[in-house]
Write a structure and sequence with these properties.
Layout (H helix, E strand, L loop, with lengths): L2 H10 L9 H4 L2 H13 L5 H11 L2 E5 L4 E4 L2 H14 L6 H17 L3 H14 L23 H11 L2 H12 L8 H12 L3 E8 L4 E6 L5 E4 L4 E3 L4 E3 L5 H4 L7 E7 L3 E8 L2 E10 L4 E10 L4 H13 L6 E3 L3 E2 L3 E7 L5 E4 L2 E4 L5 E5 L3 H17 L4 E7 L15
Antiparallel strand pairs: 1-2, 3-4, 4-5, 5-6, 7-11, 8-9, 8-12, 9-10, 10-11, 13-14, 14-18, 15-16, 16-17
This protein binds zinc ion.
């Protein structure tokens, strides 16, 4: 029996526990098989539908920086919920009903399915117990599928049902204007209403081409806004790959770099190897005491010239709070240290390499700064070709070099 078959068997066996990790192995065949058996059976099969939509509404993605990415099987959740609502009868286990409807409402709202979102929301509120929330809870906004029964969400669901968001999006499109000048919220609204997409992380803008590039909410795709609509990326992209080997296979050096910091820790950076461009962004998290990479994405246009243009656009459209720093080190702000998987962070400081995390220490010494840079560039390329990935950047002022008679120079 295949893995997928085992999930299907467990879903339809009232005495079996459904194994963990269905979201990880989910495939269209699993969905087809589950729906066929649901349709062939009788009754709403509340337990089965509940286990299924709970298992697939989140799909754990790849790991790179320790942050999890996820994509959601919205259409499949909606199809299963549809099936359940059609066969559902009064007296169904209301706790499971609330959970099924909750997943359905989130998916339908995110996909801008006005009819289903409003109808399922009304049912969900009817069966939900406990007082309504006074304040919106959770990380996601209403249009991103973060729907609860706070006053804002109740009002937004009325607006959704009544077509208010359609009218707001139409008004924004009528007003027009260069893509790069649109407020983020306006782009998000138009993308949601017209394309059911969720541009989330703004990568860069291209003034001449009148385009703004984004990564979507669940870090699943790159999308481009041109002032009228949001469409799939015009160039091949790879989000958070497990390895960068394929992108540097033919490289003999890094051809172009840009590094910018906001404050001491938030960064944006680009590196180009031939026609492949790696874009990264990191945000400082107080709870973890350091910046962590939010995303990394490779863009691979057909030519190195086009790739070089993307890096220039990236550098020219950094958010206002970001300041470009020299690629390797800034005398006043410190060494720009790069962390590769399985290695200590390393940067250049004068004629030395600075290594370590909390306090960068100087270790290897070279004849001069250029020699230190050349050696580090070669080291980086070796690591990339060996399958290591760049996972973070730090701006650190190295500690003074231990003096000759400091025998306790451990690091
Ligand atoms: Zn809310």
């Amino acid at each position: 029996m295949s893995d997928l078959d085992r999930y299907v068997e467990a879903l339809f066996d009232d005495d079996a526990d459904v194994p963990e990790g269905m979201g990880r192995v989910w495939a269209p065949e699993l969905h087809r098989s589950v729906m066929a058996r649901l349709r062939a059976g009788s009754g709403p099969r509340t337990r089965t539908v509940h286990e299924y939509v709970s298992g697939i509404h989140k799909t754990p993605g790849t790991y790179r920086s320790g942050r999890r990415t996820e994509s959601r099987n919205d259409r499949e959740v909606m199809e299963a919920t549809d099936h359940w609502v059609e066969r559902w009868v009064e007296g169904t286990d209301s706790e499971l009903a609330v959970r099924i409807l909750g997943h359905g409402v989130e998916a339908a709202t995110r996909r801008y399915d006005r009819g289903r979102a409003a109808a399922w929301y009304a049912l969900w509120r009817r069966y939900k117990t406990g007082r309504p929330l006074r304040k919106h809870r959770g990380f996601h906004t209403f249009m991103e599928g973060g729907v609860d029964d706070c006053p804002d969400c109740v009002r937004d669901m009325d607006r959704l049902a009544g077509g208010e968001f359609d009218r707001a999006a139409a008004a924004l499109l009528d007003a027009g204007g260069p893509a790069a000048d649109w407020p983020e919220q306006a782009v998000k609204l138009v993308a949601w209403v017209t394309e059911q997409r969720h541009p989330s992380f703004r990568l860069f803008a291209q003034r001449a081409a009148d385009r703004v590039w984004y990564i979507d909410l669940f870090r699943a795709s790159v999308v481009v806004f041109d002032g009228r609509s949001v469409a799939a990326s015009p160039v091949p992209f790879t989000l958070s790959p497990a390895s960068d080997v394929d992108f540097v296979a033919d490289a003999t050096r890094c051809d172009q770099q840009t590094v910018a910091f906001s404050g001491k820790h938030n960064y944006r950076a680009a590196q180009r190897y031939g026609r492949h461009v790696l874009l990264m962004e990191g945000t400082y998290y107080t709870s973890r005491g350091q910046a962590e990479m939010n995303y990394s994405v490779w863009l691979s246009p057909p030519t190195a010239e086009e790739a070089a243009g993307l890096v220039e656009d990236f550098a020219a459209s950094l958010p206002r709070s970001f300041r470009r720093v020299p690629i390797w080190s800034d005398p006043r702000r410190g060494s720009v240290m790069r962390k590769y998987s399985g290695e200590f962070a390393v940067g250049v400081w004068g004629s030395s390499w600075a290594t370590g995390l909390q306090g960068a220490r100087l270790d290897r010494e070279f004849a001069g700064e250029q020699e230190a840079i050349t050696a580090l560039e070669a080291q980086e390329l070796d690591w990339l070709k060996a399958g290591k990935v760049l996972t973070n950047l730090y701006l650190r002022m190295p500690e003074p070099k231990p003096s000759q008679n400091d025998t306790n120079g451990s690091h």
